[in-house]
Each structure stands twice: as structure tokens, then as C-alpha cells.
Design brief:
Blueprint: H1 2-32, H2 34-58, H3 60-82
Helix pairs in contact: 1-2, 1-3, 2-3
């Protein structure tokens, strides 16, 4: 059971830098326009996501926090699918 929990934690925490990259890229496109947002936003998002990944690898407690955040968003998404309009 502990191995499954560690695997789930690692899988969910692994999605967190990807989500950070996507959020920074979308913000950059909204702030700087399509072309400049994609060009500059990709670089900025890559640096931010890399920093998040390095920080998470240095502090294991942050992996739990990231896994909790991603898991919460996934649960909320699934629940929203089944809600009546």
C-alpha cells in the first residue's frame, strides 16, 4: 500500500510543473500577445517550471503539497462533469 501511495504521489506531483508551465504560458500570451507571448512565455515558463521542479526535488514535503493540489483540481474537474447544469 505504501508503494502505491508513493507512486501516486510521484505521478500527481510530476504533473505540477507541467501545470505551472501551462499557466505561465497562458498568462504570457494574454499579457504580451500571441507571438511575443509564445516566444517569451515559453522561455519564462520553462525557467519557472524548472525552478519548481528543482525546489520540489529538494524538499519532499513540497511533493505532497503539489500532489494534493493536482489531486484536488482533478477531483473538482471530475465532480464538475457529473453536476447537473
Amino acid at each position: 500500500m505504501a508503494v502505491a501511495i508513493r507512486g501516486l504521489r510521484g505521478a500527481l506531483a510530476g504533473l505540477f510543473p507541467v501545470a505551472v508551465f501551462a499557466l505561465v504560458l497562458v498568462w504570457a500570451i494574454a499579457a504580451w500577445g500571441l507571438v511575443a507571448g509564445i516566444l517569451l512565455g515559453s522561455v519564462l515558463a520553462g525557467v519557472v517550471a524548472w525552478g519548481v521542479l528543482r525546489t520540489m526535488s529538494a524538499y519532499p514535503a513540497l511533493q505532497w503539497l503539489a500532489a494534493t493540489a493536482v489531486g484536488t483540481v482533478l477531483v473538482l474537474f471530475v465532480v464538475s462533469i457529473f453536476q447537473a447544469p
